[in-house]
Design brief:
The chain is of the alpha+beta class. The protein is built from eight helices and six strands, in the order βββαααααβββααα. It has two domains: 103 residues, Helix Hairpins (Orthogonal Bundle); 99 residues, Iron/manganese superoxide dismutase, C-terminal domain (minor pseudopilin epsh fold). The strands form two sheets. Strands 1-2-3 form a three-stranded antiparallel sheet. It has a three-stranded antiparallel sheet with strand order 5-4-6, sandwiched between helices. β2 and β3 form a beta hairpin. α1 runs antiparallel to α3.
Length: 218
Amino acid sequence: MKNVGFRFRNPTFFYICSHEQQNHNIMKYELIKLPYEANALEPVISKETLGFHHGKHLNAYVNNLNGLIEGTKYEEMPLEEIVKTADGGVFNNAGQILNHNLYFTQFRAPKADNKPTGVIAQWIDQQFSSFEAFKEEFTKKGATLFGSGWVWLSVDKDGKLQITQETNAGNPVQRGFRPLLTFDVWEHAYYIDYQNRRPDHLNALWQIINWDVVNERL
């Protein structure tokens, strides 16, 4: 079995699958490998949380999707296209794989006073007046999202930055947007470390954003 990487519009829209020859190619998704050690994000995200979040929750979505798409039209469809076109269990699991892959690959070791650099810094200043104003709006959108879901920074069809709340497995690609940055507000993302203190978790995440990755997604 050979591992093959597929990429979307740019290097960070990445998911992993394998091909197995049985009369035709069958797409099998695999758990993405983290680009850092399991303890690298502490104390913002603990090794224990990362183990459950990546190793259990995301792995379950991968296994579920593989089972659901076998023998269907989604079997050889790119992940982003599944998220755009599917519904029900196929959408939920595909959406969560795409969301988590973008989420886990945007992090780095904690850094004090971690601020945007490069083009994304310029865009944020132009559209939100300052990074602090952007951060306040983004964090508020995450803190006030009812139930489970994600808060996103994306580029819309007109090339402008947009902050959106997406419930459950939603992703801005469904709107035709290009996702750049996301915070997961499902409780399994933070409950071990922060219990019900979602705003504290969201505020801490700014320390570990890898702005180089965000710039690559522009």
